[in-house]
Amino acid sequence: MKEKVYEFLKTIPKGKVVTYGQIAEYLGNKKLARVVGNILHNNPDEYKYPCYKVVDSKGNLSRHFAFGGIEKQKEKLEREGIVVRDYKVDLDKYRM
C-alpha cells in the first residue's frame, strides 16, 4: 500500500495539492485517510515523494510535517505558487 501512496505523490502537478482522503480514495477506501497520514509521516525521500503537497480535508497544512514542520510545508507550497493563508490553502483553487 505504501508504494501506491508514494507513487501517487509523484503524479501531483506543480501548483496543486491533494487531501489525505483523495489518496485514500485512490487506494479504494476513503476511510484509509489516517493510514495515508501515517505512511506520509514515514516518507523515505521528501524530494522523490513530495508529501508537502498533501493537506487535510479543509485545506489545512500539517502541524507535524515530517520534514521541518508546518513552516517548511508552507514555504514549499508557496515556492510552487500556492497561496497559504493562516496555514490553509484554498482547495477550490489548488486541489488536483
Structure description:
It is built from 5 helices and 2 strands, in the order αβααβαα. It has 96 residues and is mostly helical. It has one domain (2-94): Winged helix-like DNA-binding domain superfamily/Winged helix DNA-binding domain (Arc Repressor Mutant, subunit A, Orthogonal Bundle). The chain has a two-stranded parallel ribbon. The longest helix is centred in the last third of the chain and has 11 residues, at 69-79. It is globular and about 30 Å long.
Summarize the structure.
The chain has 5 helices and 2 strands; from the N terminus they run H-E-H-H-E-H-H. The chain is mainly alpha-helical and 96 residues long.
Sheet having the most strands: 2 strands, parallel
Assign a percent range to the helix content: 40-55%
Give, in order, the helices and strands: HEHHEHH
Task: Count the E strands.
Answer: 2
Please tell me the total number of domains: 1
Structural class of the helix and strand makeup?
Answer: mainly alpha
Number of helices: 5
| N- and C-termini, Cα separation | 21 Å
Mean pLDDT: 95
Q: Please give the radius of gyration in angstroms.
A: 12 Å
